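New to this. Please check this fold:
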Amino acid sequence: MHIVLGILSAVISILYILDRLGIDVAFNPWSWRRRRAWAKRYTGDPIYSVDEPMHAAAIFVTATAKFDGTVSTEEKQAILQMFEEKFSLSPKAAAELFGSATHLLGAPQVMGTQVEGLAGKSRDLFSPEQAESMLEMMEGVAALSGGPTPQQHEYLVRMRNAFEKPQPAGTWA
């Protein structure tokens, strides 16, 4: 009996020491799953946490302007006007939406990967009307500077292919 108590106290001591050192030794699968999901969300790219079609569309439209470099004042004003008209937003809400979309988009080197990943994830959120409206806004932004650049054209083709047959989800409002 004293041998069993010695082994149990040694195991408990080792588990306690590992816990104090920050090494995760979890026996509760629900707790482990919750902590794992939180860690993935905390350390992941925040653009993939977008789960509303209006916010995703704002990111896609803003990315169209950012693909050829920085966003010009003319492009920004046109995007804000589109957000106000298409999404039925106030000027302040449209500016906030544009700001958050600009913030979520990363550097030009990773922006293509980010947008493609978000398109694959959010494709099912869009109704056919929403997808068509978003693609029209993207083409309008690309046409502002005299036609789409080669990068913008390639991006528009990829997005049109990604949203060719979306699942019904509803309207913007």
